[in-house]
Specification:
435 residues, mainly beta, 26-stranded parallel beta sheet, two-stranded antiparallel sheet, 5 helices, signal, T9SS C-terminal target domain-containing protein
């Protein structure tokens, strides 16, 4: 009988280890190796040898042998394809708020390699978040707005002749804006006016044939990834030390976010309290058509981590907020993901009525909530008993723990090659929703 019990315990341990390994970012190897850079300020890319400015209106290729400077707002227009060779470096100009926009109908083919990524970065000797603009892709997939959208109002000193290149949205769900693969975007998010910054990468009305894999946005002053409408599929996306939101979905986006990472620093977050994941359907109700679909995000194998070394102190100082925010009329289906070190893990918009119909649109399944100051709350409401009872139900397979980050993840201290996968067999987790 004793031997049978020992065998049963062994199977339980093996099963537990496998289950833990399935949560958060996954891979038999650390897929962050080789192409990412968590300390880019130490990298010298040299002086630019070529300048990109104005409109690119004929098919153009950028080569690794040259270093390019984005001078002002650069638009790829008129069904043009911009091809970027692996290993190419494009530098955004600080003085002119350099940015690159792929207009609706145009295409970018930026297919780097794991060992030779494409890099967008700053031209300043001492690099800081917000040194330059960012990367913008505009497509003709649907949004939930009346008519189509435009980003013209977001740019300062934009010549009126360029307004037509700022439109996005349409009816082509299966459209393609090209390929972004093994791409790094560093120190973007330049401030344009009060309350508005460029994003690291803005995807507006982008269709589901666009390939978006292995993209890292680091030290961004705006949102790392902002998705407005469209049908976007993001795989192995990384946001590191952003001042604003890591992943922001809005305006009826129907998107998938898979095997992706957001690492927040308590010292980088802006005063408005940025989140790892923000899912909303609109900013202003009067701008959207409610006969169209609201935002729906399906997320799997995410790791959302606050790298605070003193969580309680940083919470008292107001430096740590929630990891996830879900707005009214928006839907989030997230599973097999890790949320570690936030205050609390999740906030639901105060306009959301807590009932079965609405909660079935906001799914947290097979999650690992770790070391958070509370789990799931409604905005401005400290009583979350109903939500804890709902999401704490055993049928959701959610796990709750209080482990330090150093005990939870494989290797956070390695500045060159950190490993944010969960430690196997070293996580003490209890199936309890008590804080």
């Amino acid at each position: 009988m004793k031997k049978i019990t020992q065998i049963m315990m062994l199977f339980l341990l093996i099963g537990s280890a496998s289950a833990q390994q399935e949560k958060g970012i996954i891979g038999t190897e650390n897929w962050l190796n080789n192409w990412t850079d968590f300390d880019p300020k130490r990298t010298d890319y040299g002086e630019p040898s070529q300048i990109l400015t104005g409109n690119i209106s004929k098919d153009t290729k950028l080569y690794k042998r040259d270093t390019y400077l984005l001078l002002g707002n650069v638009f790829v227009t008129d069904s043009t394809t911009l091809t970027i060779e692996p290993g190419t470096v494009i530098i955004g100009d600080f003085e002119t708020k350099g940015s690159l926009t792929i207009a609706k109908g145009a295409t970018i083919m930026a297919e780097g390699l794991e060992t030779d990524p494409i890099v967008f970065t700053s031209n300043r000797s001492v690099k800081k978040a917000g040194d330059w603009g960012g990367l913008v892709l505009l497509g003709d997939a649907p949004t939930n707005k009346f008519g189509n959208g435009s980003i013209a109002s977001q740019y300062l000193n934009l010549d009126s002749s360029s307004y037509r290149y700022t439109n996005y949205g349409g009816t082509n769900i299966n459209s393609s804006s090209g390929v972004l693969k093994y791409v790094r975007i560093e120190y973007a998010g330049r401030k344009l006016r009060k309350g508005f910054n460029f994003d690291g990468i803005l995807l507006a009305g982008v269709g589901n044939e666009t390939v978006l894999e292995n993209i890292m946005v680091s030290y961004c002053a705006g949102d790392s990834f902002e998705i407005l409408g469209g049908r976007v599929n993001l795989l192995k996306a990384v946001s590191y030390s952003s001042n604003s939101n890591d992943f922001k979905f809005n305006l009826g986006s129907q998107s998938n976010l898979d095997n992706s990472l957001a690492v927040r620093s308590p010292y980088a977050t802006n005063s408005s309290g940025a989140r790892c994941l923000q899912v909303t359907s609109y900013d202003k109700k009067e701008e959207v058509d409610f006969t169209k679909e609201g935002t729906k995000v399906v997320a799997k194998n995410l790791t959302l981590l606050n790298n605070s070394t003193d969580l309680s102190t940083h919470i008292k100082m107001g430096l740590i907020k929630e990891a996830v925010f879900i707005g009214e009329n928006a839907s989030l289906d997230i599973n097999k993901s890790v949320i570690s070190g936030f205050n609390p893990a999740v906030i639901l918009d105060d306009k959301i009525t807590i009932n079965q119909e609405n909660l079935e649109k906001i799914k947290f399944v097979d999650m690992y909530f770790n070391n958070c100051n509370g789990n799931i709350f409604k905005e401005y409401n400290s009583n979350n008993e109903d939500l804890e009872n709902w999401y704490g139900n055993r049928s959701f397979y959610n796990v709750y723990a209080k482990s330090q980050n150093s005990e939870t993840f494989i290797d956070l201290k390695n500045k060159k090659r950190p490993d944010f996968r969960l430690r196997i067999n070293k996580i003490i987790a209890a199936n309890s929703n008590k804080n």
